[in-house]
């Protein structure tokens, strides 16, 4: 490791105070004195002992009696903790702090929901759900923004053993129905409006449309937050939130099998009908406790802000922080309104200790020369897309002595594969080593392990939060095709990754969007790192399009309003030629108003490529998942 790219090292006091150190001491033996990489090797070579130790360390209460080995040896299809029972909601509410939730509205006003009140509402809502016939395995769906009612809904459904799914209201009716109709839900939770960008946006018409297209719904529970007392008109029975959460009976927790379905998360819908990814109670509980305690170093009593809508898996992680005794900060609103530095103001004013956000926000702060106020922030988590070396340096220039943990994972596992080692240094532009229990490697197309070269990100041993199955995939074909077709029995995630000898890594982007110019393969992330470092460039998107025997590689760029685009084009071509490869100078540099993303912040390289290959817009992407659908309409015409 070169000291020149090390931006931060944890102090001895920080290492001593970390949850990872506490876990090592609790383990004792060789693991107590091992370094991080040795501990990681042990956790992946002996997964049964590792995950069993985590159950004890986190004091997870498992019922039942074991009927087989703790950890499966094969993927897919192996079972974790067979014969044991657990309930995700029970653990979270048992460990929740006295100040269970901090809700911050778009106007930056905050209020606390106490542990007692959270437990009361979960008990009341779960009783209401049972009263209308909801039982284990039934589906409860919600169209709610990031607020306390969403947390109560998830925990009430989980307490019963019902299966939960949620979408943020800004998705729109069509995108939401394409997801929820698959589930045939029994109950729908809906909200009359949400706050964003300083405005109250009504969702009443969308909820009415959604309800009309879900014939299996027997009960609507209406969150009338902006117009109290005004219920939605619908053909099904409607009950107000206040009525559904009246009462003070404590929650009754169903003891469900370890792998009982907890929730359905949906893929982005950029390659067809969104896939319903089903996760289990026990796997999610163990994986998120491990991630939040040992990888994120979140402490009991701290406030944790994970920025993202309820449709993104980071929201589920935020709720799970109750399980380590932290207070989730539920931020409802725009992170850039009224100014781009909004999140830093929230962090400072509400004493946030750990914040997670997307790399795109940090890059926007860098471009806007934001100077955050002093705060209690000690850890900054970055997800969603790779953070550039310039982004790393901006963080340490403007925020000082904190731990920047850039991480990469996925909705597929609702966790991370790489990044998050609190006792190791931070290198510019690189993610820290793999997470404990995640046997991650880079492989070439022949299945050979690579170091110092880009390869397919693979996972060679099962992880407990891998999907139980996909919804409406009875024979498991879509599941196997998604992860196990290239390397049978080995999870191939679809990202290109490059590991260094010290275990740090760099994500080169999706392997299905790789550029292959004259036989030289390059990830789009390599292009972005160079192009987006140019001050006038706000963001870029590059695709390689096969057109018969021709290969067309355009680069789309959004630039600052006052930029001379002719000069910017020259800079881009020169930078790619000098820093990457003459072969990867684009055929065209095209100015666009903005770059299209999913609502979770991922660039839409594959849909744009398919559009340029002549496919219809309706066939390449679910527009309800796109942050600015007009951008794709413009490309399609």
UniProtKB/TrEMBL annotation:
Its EC number is 6.2.1.16. GO terms for biological process: lipid metabolic process. Residues 95-463 form the AMP-dependent synthetase/ligase domain. Signal peptide: none annotated. Keywords: ATP-binding, Ligase, Nucleotide-binding. Belongs to the ATP-dependent AMP-binding enzyme family. Residues 529-602 form the AMP-binding enzyme C-terminal domain. This is Acetoacetate--CoA ligase. It is an enzyme of class 6 (ligase). InterPro entries: Acac_CoA_synth (IPR005914), ACAS_N (IPR032387), AMP-bd_C (IPR025110), AMP-bd_C_sf (IPR045851), AMP-binding_CS (IPR020845), AMP-dep_synth/lig_dom (IPR000873), ANL_N_sf (IPR042099). Residues 36-91 form the Acetyl-coenzyme A synthetase N-terminal domain. It comes from Cryptosporangium phraense. It comes from the Bacteria. One of its GO terms (molecular function) is acetoacetate-CoA ligase activity.
């Amino acid at each position: 490791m070169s000291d020149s790219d090390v931006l931060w090292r944890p102090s001895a006091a920080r290492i001593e105070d970390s949850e990872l150190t506490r876990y090592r001491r609790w383990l004792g033996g060789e693991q107590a004195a091992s370094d991080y990489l040795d501990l990681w090797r042990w956790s992946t070579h002996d997964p049964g002992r590792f995950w069993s130790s985590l159950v004890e360390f986190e004091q997870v209460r498992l019922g039942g009696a074991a009927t087989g080995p703790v950890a499966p040896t094969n993927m897919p299809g192996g079972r974790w903790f067979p014969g044991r029972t657990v309930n995700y909601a029970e653990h979270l509410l048992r460990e929740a702090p006295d100040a269970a939730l901090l809700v911050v509205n778009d106007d930056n006003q905050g209020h606390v929901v106490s542990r007692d009140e959270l437990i009361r509402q979960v008990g009341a809502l779960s009783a209401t759900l049972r009263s209308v016939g909801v039982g284990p395995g039934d589906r409860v769906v919600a169209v709610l923004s990031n607020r306390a009612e969403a947390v109560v809904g998830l925990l009430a459904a989980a307490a019963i053993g019902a299966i939960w799914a949620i979408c943020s209201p800004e998705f729109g009716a069509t995108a939401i129905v394409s997801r929820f109709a698959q589930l045939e839900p029994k109950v729908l939770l809906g909200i009359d409006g949400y706050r964003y960008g300083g405005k109250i946006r009504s969702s009443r018409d969308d909820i009415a449309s959604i309800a009309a297209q879900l014939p299996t719904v027997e009960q609507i529970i209406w969150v009338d937050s902006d117009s109290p007392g005004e219920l939605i008109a619908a053909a099904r029975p409607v009950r107000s939130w206040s009525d559904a959460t009246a009462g003070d009976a404590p929650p009754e927790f169903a003891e469900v099998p370890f792998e009982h379905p907890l929730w359905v998360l949906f893929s982005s819908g950029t390659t067809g009908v969104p896939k319903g990814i089903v996760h289990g109670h026990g796997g999610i509980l163990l994986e998120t406790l491990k991630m939040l305690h040992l990888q994120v170093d979140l402490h009991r009593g701290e406030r944790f802000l994970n920025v993202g809508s309820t449709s993104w898996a980071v929201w589920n992680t935020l709720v799970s922080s109750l399980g380590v005794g932290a207070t989730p900060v539920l931020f409802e609103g725009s992170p850039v309104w009224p100014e781009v530095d909004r999140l830093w103001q929230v962090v400072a004013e509400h004493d946030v200790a750990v914040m997670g956000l997307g790399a795109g926000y940090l890059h926007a702060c860098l471009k806007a020369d934001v100077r955050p106020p002093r705060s209690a922030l000690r850890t900054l988590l970055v997800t969603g897309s790779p953070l550039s070396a310039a982004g790393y340096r901006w963080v340490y220039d403007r925020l000082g002595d904190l731990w920047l943990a850039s991480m990469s994972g996925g909705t597929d596992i609702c966790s991370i594969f790489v990044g998050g080692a609190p006792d190791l240094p931070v290198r510019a532009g690189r993610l820290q080593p793999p997470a404990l229990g995640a046997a991650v490697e880079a492989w070439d197309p022949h299945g050979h392990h690579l170091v110092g070269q880009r390869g397919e990100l693979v996972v060679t041993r099962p992880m407990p939060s891998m999907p139980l199955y996909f919804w409406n995939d009875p024979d498991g074909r879509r599941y196997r095709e998604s992860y196990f077709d290239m390397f049978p029995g080995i999870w191939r995630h679809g990202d290109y990754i490059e590991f260094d000898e010290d275990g740090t890594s760099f994500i080169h982007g999706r392997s299905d969007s790789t550029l292959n110019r004259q036989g030289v393969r390059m990830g789009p992330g390599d292009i972005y790192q160079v192009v987006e470092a140019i001050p006038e460039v706000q963001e870029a998107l590059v695709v390689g399009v096969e057109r018969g025997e021709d290969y067309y590689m355009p680069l789309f760029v959004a630039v600052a309003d006052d930029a001379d685009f002719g000069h910017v084009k020259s800079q881009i071509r020169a930078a790619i030629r000098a820093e990457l490869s003459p072969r990867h100078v684009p055929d065209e540099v095209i100015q666009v108003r903005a770059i299209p993303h999913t609502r979770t912040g991922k660039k839409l390289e594959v849909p744009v490529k398919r559009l340029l290959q002549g496919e219809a817009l309706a066939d390449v992407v679910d527009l309800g998942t796109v942050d600015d659908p007009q951008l794709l309409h413009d490309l399609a015409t």
